[in-house]
Amino acid sequence: MSAEYMVATYNLSKSYNSVYRVDTLNLNVRQGEIYGFLGPNGAGKSTSLKMLLGLTQPSGGRITLFGKELSQHRISILSQVGSLIESPSYYGHLTGLENMRVMKRLRGVPERNIREALGIVRLEKHQHKRVDQYSLGMKQRLGIAMALLAFPRLLILDEPTNGLDPAGIGEIRELIKSLPGRYGITVLISSHLLSEIEQMATSVGIIHEGKLLFQGDLTELQARGQSSVSFTTQDAASAESLLLASGFQPVNRQGRLHIEGMQDEQIAEANRLLVSAGIPVIRIEEHKKSLEEIFLDLTGRERTL
Ligand SMILES: Nc1ncnc2c1ncn2[C@@H]1O[C@H](COP(=O)(O)OP(=O)(O)OP(=O)(O)O)[C@@H](O)[C@H]1O
């Protein structure tokens, strides 16, 4: 039924003290995607991802991974999932390589996986250094290497670039982008930054106050943003009353009258009305919303997004 999806949730919900922090979520992640799970702080991203990993019990709804019910096939499913949730766990007094060996024994994978995973995150040169001497970015990359160690079918990353500088963010972005093509790994990654997701995701899900507000690709989202048309006239006040009286809904912004979602005929009609009332029209302009504005509209103008 859901075999086409690597991850599918059905009305997935989680409440704490009877407040729903994840509310009837229906996520669909297809094979080979980089799915960006986007939302402001506190939107419910971590809680959702923890449920996918069996770390938190849902209050309602179901989860399938690889088309199988998580509640019934937990062990076999989770052996094919790699994850990095919150900060990576490691032994600071051990080297990067030693940490990888600990993980290798836990995961029961061959030694060569260590070399390969350290190569992907470009940590080979630092593998003999103690992890408590790593920079934040190196620790984060080690966390990703650990998550990759068993070369999972699905990689779940919760805000993996939090706290990194732009160069570190760029590096992680490039390595994540290479995973579906090179290793066939599907990636589900959360972030509160549109700019980050925009540059790597093939699909996005936008969550706000526990609810999924949009799911699809970015071009679809862009198409959703209604453009507005503005009229600049020599008499904004009279133009506004005339347009209002004719059934338009202009918004006066610094003397320019903006009207949303207008068809071509309506633009011509508004123009004709103004001109025939003796109000000279100086300029008619179209304003397309940027992706950023569309996100801000969706999430109630949260500053973090
Ligand atoms: N164990 C818990 N008990 C009570 N409330 C919780 C618990 N875990 C999370 N919450 C609440 O659920 C909401 C969603 O938190 P969550 O960590 O999932 O958000 P998020 O989108 O990952 O945001 P952030 O990026 O800030 O972590 C928040 O209001 C948080 O306070």
TrEMBL record:
SUPFAM superfamilies: P-loop containing nucleoside triphosphate hydrolases
Domain ABC transporter: 7-234
Signal peptide region: none
UniProt keywords, alphabetically: ATP-binding, Nucleotide-binding, Transport
GO molecular function: ATP binding
Tagged with keyword ATP-binding: yes
InterPro entries reported for this sequence: AAA+_ATPase, ABC_transporter-like_ATP-bd, ABC_transporter-like_CS, P-loop_NTPase
ATP-binding keyword on record: yes
Family: Belongs to the ABC transporter superfamily.
UniProt protein name: ATP-binding cassette domain-containing protein
Organismal lineage: Bacteria, Bacillati, Bacillota, Bacilli, Bacillales
